[in-house]
Amino acid sequence: MTKVKLAGEKATLLPTLYGRALDSQSPDSILHDTMAYDAVQQIEVDFSTVGLRRGDDTAIALRARCLDDWAREFLAAHPECVVLHLGCGLDTRVYRIDPGPGVRWFDVDYPEVIELRGQLFPDRDGCTAIGASVTDPMWLAEIKGDLPVLVVAEGLFMYLREDEGKDLVRRVLDHFPSGQFVFDGLSRRGTKLQKLNKAVQAAKATVHWGFDSCEELEAIDSRLRCVSSMSAFDLDNDRLPTGFRMTAKVSKVFTGMRNLAVFYRMDFQPSASG
């Protein structure tokens, strides 16, 4: 057994890992992420303390599937590209998606998280692990920027400060010729309500950055264009417990509630002047 001592935003990888593991054991599994289940068996953690509520495992799997599907669409259109999986945690996305030989995939997270990944998951051709804070500009300089890029950031941006997040996005825009970001985000109201989230409380994490619209994200840089956005309440809610489904129905009446958590897909191309 591997002992795990993580705190703050790093510890939020534990409930998401556990949620995917629980989903994998369901007869109606969404992700079939048996690698997550195997990882849970190998680490010494009391998962009853990570703040997972009934139904959260399904919500976690649905969230991951949404971004997996968007990533697969991009890779189908760009068989030769770079993938930056930012704040990868213990997510097995590269194994679930199984990209082709033309894809250079990079899993990026804090050094101690990357070290833990190395103990739990096998090496994979075409996938490189980078142990660094995503806000450190140095790691990106080591990656060739000659191909389109897909940036996947699940459960990341809300833990960055606004200036850190915007600087990270602009560095990617300046480094690659074109590409797409797929990620989830919280509204400003959503960041305040996250203080009541049991998983966030259990990790003693702090959320910072919230945004309320595609237009606000497009304002970060003129090269960004919002392709699509989807409320978390528009996921396959028939799979969720009654309480979740009732909340989803209420959210369709109240816009502020509907936009508490949103999935975004944003393209970027060279600027007209560039």
Q: How would you summarize what this structure contains?
A:
The protein has 274 residues and is of the alpha/beta class. Helices cover 39% and strands 19% of the residues.
Structure description:
- Keywords: Methyltransferase, Transferase.
- Pfam families: LCM.
- There is one protein chain.
- This protein has 274 residues and is of the alpha/beta class.
- Helices cover 39% and strands 19% of the residues.
- Strands 5-4-3-6-7-9-8 form a seven-stranded mixed sheet. A two-stranded parallel ribbon has the order 1-2.
- Helix 1 packs across helix 2 (34-42) and helix 1 (13-24) crosses helix 3 (56-77).
- The radius of gyration is 18 Å and the shape is globular.
- It starts with a strand and ends in a 6-residue tail after the last strand.
How do the helices and strands line up, and which of them pair or pack?
Blueprint: E1 2-3, H1 13-24, H2 34-42, E2 43-44, H3 56-77, E3 81-86, H4 93-97, E4 103-109, H5 111-120, E5 127-131, H6 138-141, E6 149-153, H7 162-175, E7 179-186, H8 188-193, H9 198-203, H10 214-218, E8 224-231, H11 242-251, H12 255-258, E9 261-268
Parallel strand pairs: 1-2, 3-4, 3-6, 4-5, 6-7
Antiparallel strand pairs: 7-9, 8-9
